[in-house]
Amino acid sequence: MMARHGLLSQRALLTAGALSTLLVLGTTAAAQDPGDLSKRGERVYGTSCATGYCHTLGGGSGGGAARLAARGFDLAHIQNAVTKGMPQTRMPAFGTLLPAEDLNAVIAYVASLNGIDAGATAAVATPARAPLSPAAERGRELLHAADRGYGRCATCHQVAGSGVPVADPIAQVPDSVPALRRLTTPDVATVTLAGDSMPGLVISPGAARTVFYDLTVAPPVLRTVPTAAIKVTEGSRWQHDRVLSHYTTVELEDVLTYLREAR
Ligand code: HEC
To answer: Tell me, what's the pLDDT at 179?
Structure first.
């Protein structure tokens, strides 16, 4: 458990791995001129990233957000951060904010600031998504459905760039609704604080402070507490099955279809 949630960057890396596989599999056929791509990326960067508050033009330091040039970032990391955002920071998920061409271009541009050839990024450009099947389309709506309140999956899961990433990105889609119902949640621990026990998903177990999601209520509450004040024991009585009660079996089948097609 600790290993999985030890560092935010580990969460990011997990996603990066999954994402790069996806990108390589779905490479677009249309070749883009690397020079054009990077130039377009620089333009997108100028308007979307180098705002007064965030990154600076050219990717140097000095803005409110991190320096981006010459950081030694690899392509998967850049793609992941730009597309999905960075949890617990103000970096948004541009995957849902920018058209695909602009997204690819800005990724290529930031890659070029890190010495990665724009040609290499053009070759693995984000594929245009295949249209969803009708069942998956219904599943997508159900997963985000506002009328389910905090019972909706998107309260705790981010899929294709939207929703709240309380849990790690879904790595394995269960084969069936019964399998989804049987899901165990080994990363949810029992956190005891001042004699009070609660189910908690530890995000960052620091020496001084521990950051965790308290899953007692939905939406889960992100808490930062002195590590010395809490006790974390493996396992909990929290049941994922209970959060599924906001959906019927037929609806959950559509949600699973969506999760499969969204990969
Ligand atoms: C209140 C929060 C919450 C809600 C709502 C929620 N989940 Fe989860 N889900 C979790 C947590 C936390 C985990 C991970 C637990 C772990 O890793 O131990 C998880 C894990 C999963 C996993 C396993 C992920 C993997 O990588 O193997 C799947 C699949 C999943 N949820 C699907 C769903 C679906 C579908 C819905 C909506 C019908 C949903 N969840 C609603 C909190 C939630």
So the answer is: 98
